[in-house]
Amino acid sequence: MIIGVPMEIKTDESRVALTVGGVAELIHHGHTVYIQKGAGIGSGFPDTLYESVGGKILSTIEEVYAIADMIMKVKEPIEAEYKLVKENQVIFTYFHFASSEPLTKAMIESKSICIAYETVEQADRSLPLLVPMSEVAGRMSVQQGAKYLEKPIKGRGILLGGVPGVQPAKVLVLGGGIVGKQAAKMAAGLGADVTIMDISLPRLRQLDDVMAANVTTIMSNQYNIEQAVQESDLIIGAVLIPGRKAPRLVTREMLKLMRPGTVLVDVAVDQGGCFETTKATTHRDPTYIIDDVVHYCVANMPGAVPYTSTVGLTNATFPYAIQLANKGWVKACKENKELLLGLNIIKGDIVYEGVAEAFELPYVDVNTVFENEIAI
């Protein structure tokens, strides 16, 4: 198979879909890998390293898309890439379709095969390709939140962990999944007074068993959230429903209950955000203020630490990528139910129910489409 790795052109995105080791392994299995010139530099992988293991460098993104059977990316294609995606081409990346109707319709029109990292799912319902970036984003959410609590950046002027004789900041984490757990651990480690909310009582029990003494677990509901936001200094949105839009847990009206300088960090922004006032921002212009509340809603938070993020991501994606390359997408998805769940759009048909629901578009059962592909 011919695999193409284009440069990520989303604003302030420096990650790359394959490390040098990943390219070497694909070539060892008999595949050809084309990398766009400079694609790995931001993550610490210059072109010469890719060439040293047999990777081929192409000058433009157009050349990479034109030659590849499978495109491996980190972030979803942006508008400039829509017309580059070919019919029958496999695109393996984070898509987060439910947050973007234009992207969804563009990929339908392309008649490509879209396999989304974020919906590849194991038997225990875990999301192995979302975990590494969720871990990075969860930890970064506290790091960024602590910074934007500083007064020069319009925050409340509170040190997250306080000092002897002074109370620490209060941190509210909405969601007890991978992001929420990592955020709570980081905030607790810095000495903050942490509250983590989730709708699952078993999950709250698990968190209660492993968290430090300065972490409190509370059942998530509208009343409890409304009470908690009034005394929180940093609120982290860490809610995920695989393949669907995130629920809006913090309303515009709740902002009026918060103290001036409170900081909101929405890690769910890729799925539409879990704050009503969320709008995607970039690392270049990361925050905005509504009702004296600071919003940090960067849609690719892990992109700020590209080396860590690239290595962590490719450690998780590569076992699936090698299956797709060795077997082709039909056989690989037939034999691996985890990859089957990663299929979101197949040659113009939406086969992931949450994506179809988000925009009231037609949904086709993946097994029906898949059986037709096997027959062909």
Describe the structure.
By secondary structure, this protein is of the alpha/beta class. The protein folds into two domains: 181 residues, Rossmann fold, CATH 3.40.50; 174 residues, NAD(P)-binding Rossmann-like Domain (Rossmann fold). It is built from 14 helices and 15 strands. The strands form two sheets. Strands 3-2-1-4-5-6-14-15 form an eight-stranded mixed sheet, sandwiched between helices. Strands 9-8-7-10-11-13-12 form a seven-stranded mixed sheet, with helices on both faces. 49% of the residues are buried. The model has no long low-confidence stretch (mean pLDDT 95).
Give the structure's gist in a few sentences.
The chain has 376 residues and is an alpha/beta fold. Helices cover 38% and strands 16% of the residues. The protein has two domains: 2-112 and 306-375, Rossmann fold (3-Layer(aba) Sandwich); 131-304, Rossmann fold (3-Layer(aba) Sandwich), CATH 3.40.50.
Layout of secondary structure:
Elements: E1 2-5, H1 20-28, E2 32-36, H2 47-52, E3 56-58, H3 61-67, E4 70-72, H4 79-82, E5 90-93, H5 101-110, E6 113-116, H6 131-148, E7 170-174, H7 178-189, E8 193-198, H8 201-210, E9 215-219, H9 222-229, E10 234-237, H10 252-255, E11 263-266, E12 287-290, E13 293-296, H11 306-335, H12 337-342, E14 343-346, E15 349-350, H13 353-359, H14 366-375
Parallel strand pairs: 1-2, 1-4, 2-3, 4-5, 5-6, 7-8, 7-10, 8-9, 10-11, 11-13
Antiparallel strand pairs: 6-14, 12-13, 14-15
